[in-house]
Amino acid sequence: MHEEDVPVLVVGGSLVGLSTSLFLASHGVPSLVVERHHGTAIHPRAAFILQRTIETYRSVGLEKAISVAAAQEFIQNGAIMSVESLGGREIEWYFRNINDGVEDLSPSRRLFFTQIGLEPILRHRAEELGARVQYASEVVSIEADAGGITAVVQDRDSGEQRRVHARYVVAADGARSPVRERLGISMCGHGTFSNSITIYFRADVRELIGDRVLSVVYVFHPELQGFFRFSIDGDAGFLVVNTTVDANGQRSRNVAEDASNERCIEYVRLALGASDLPVEIEAVQHWSSIADWAERFQEGRVLLVGDAAHVMPPTGGYGGNTGIHDAHNLAWKLALVLDSVAGPDLLATYDAERRPVASFTVEQAYTRYVLRLDPELDNANLVPIVDDATIDLGYRYRSTAVVGKPDDDDGADREDPHKPSGRPGFRAPHVVVERDGTPLSTLDLMGKGFVLFAGADAESWCRAGRAAGQRLGVQLDAYTVGESGELAERSGRFAEAYGTGTQGATLVRPDGFIAWRSRSADRDDEQVLTDVLAQVLSRSLPAQAS
Fold first, then answer.
1. Distance between CA atoms of 474 and 55, rounded to whole angstroms?
2. Is residue 112 pLDDT above 70, yes or no?
3. Fewest Cβ atoms closer than 10 Å to its Cβ: which of 41, 69, 156, 326?
């Protein structure tokens, strides 16, 4: 049997698996991705891309390409609203424009883009940076050994098998993750509450849309509940049907039980409010509405991301985005551990940080599903709805990779991203600065290594940061920020958003989250930063630092 060695084996090559390989490659870590299907996505799933996700792709140079390609698929900045039928009564407008009110939170904008268009872009860039992607392949066994993980990978066409030895495995193999099941990791949450269908159809809906610019249209028809998305030309789209109601008022959550061509045409016409409109069914996809998360995201050298770690209904569009954020959180940690810059315990912070965020997001998606689509579901313990910007940009990490002070922690796990505090554990705020006369976002300086931002009068923190990074062998860039700083910022927005004043400093991790902050100078600032970096990296101090 042929054998090969790789630093990281990524099981599953869809949206999150490809993102994982891309982020790993951007940190210089080659990976092997094995995907059981024969190519990238053929169904236009996960079309709503949130700001944080675009920020992660921006950090690897893909934002422009993604934005241009997305504009070929959908009219951007459309509304999210609900109707009784597309041609009938309007019920509620959730967003008149999907970027209303969030334009100043990020250099990136929310987009609508399908996996059909996005996955090839991710694959191409990942392969450019050194990743390998193999389709029509699946992992048939996986075992831990002294040096890592040994997996047997089988070609689905030829049946040929080979052994792959990896130091770490990332399971991105979907909601029914075989890797997760082999590890015996159970799921928590609400389970399955609908066997739904997605109907891909062709029909001329331009007259029904009229002059409305629509991104997502929820349908609350007396006979069915679901939602639409339409092509940019208004001649095709897809309809998700989650529940139906018969003539006796009996609700069915097993829509997939009858998904014949005739029934699907009927569903589309009902939801459109056009009983005689010519409709051609192109495909029907069966899937289950689930709201669950794994009891743990790590088992030894195997780590779960995406749907393997958490599954949520599509209300809110959080599923794919949350998985991409998993991958971004994990990639820099794996890279530093593989390079022996960080200790293996740094990987334990992945579960500590991502699992609470994922479970919270699952609950938010479930609450929206119940309130919008199926109020007859169990709603006794629904969590209160939190606004989308906070879900996307306002969550907090708590782990040993975050070094906080008591006065920086009021116990809150989230904050309004419109009023960032700069406290450790939160995402570093977007602030426009100038470097050599060129405007850029503070976020544009992050992504590879650590970044230290110091107040305008705190050059000593910058010197200390560079020295501490050199001691520990860590890439660390340092900048003063202020009216006369290396990064010019005259409005005072930076000092307010990051909470450093003119004498303090803040240390930002490679994933753009704040690791540590001081509001003032320190007599032994180099030792302080050396200690902080060592804790974040889960390693002991070098002898000369001790």
1. 23
2. yes
3. 156
How many angstroms separate the CA atoms of 182 and 166, rounded? Answer: 17
- Maximum alpha-carbon separation in the chain: 80
**pLDDT tens digit string along 450-465?**
999 999 889 999 999 9
Q: Compute the radius of gyration of the chain from its Cα atoms.
A: 24
- φ, ψ (nearest 5 deg) of residue 214: -120, 130
The Cα–Cα gap between 94 and 49 comes to 17
List domains and CATH numbers for the chain.
Answer: 2-74+111-189+294-389 (3.50.50.60), 190-290 (3.30.9.10), 396-536 (3.40.30.120)
| pLDDT band of 519, cuts 50, 70, 90 | confident
CA atoms of 423 and 406, how far apart (whole Å): 11
> Residue 100 CB: number of other CB atoms within 10 A?
11
Give the mean model confidence (pLDDT) for residues 113-117: 92
DSSP characters over 281-327: EEEEEEEEEEEEEES-SEETTEEE-GGGTEE--STTSHHHHHHHHHH
Gap between the Cα atoms of 220 and 240, Å rounded: 12
DSSP code of residue 411? S
Tokens linked to 57: 């792709």
Q: Does residue 352 register a pLDDT over 70?
A: yes
Paired tokens of 372: 């919008």
Q: Which amino acid is at 165?
A: H
User: With contact defined as beta carbons under 8 Å apart, do 213 and 79 qualify?
Assistant: yes
Which letter does DSSP use for residue 258 in this model?
-
Instruction: Name the DSSP class of 49.
Output: E
Q: What is the C-alpha to C-alpha distance for residues 259 and 444, in angstroms, rounded to an integer? A: 47
10 - beta bridge partners? 33, 170
- Catalytic site residues? 218
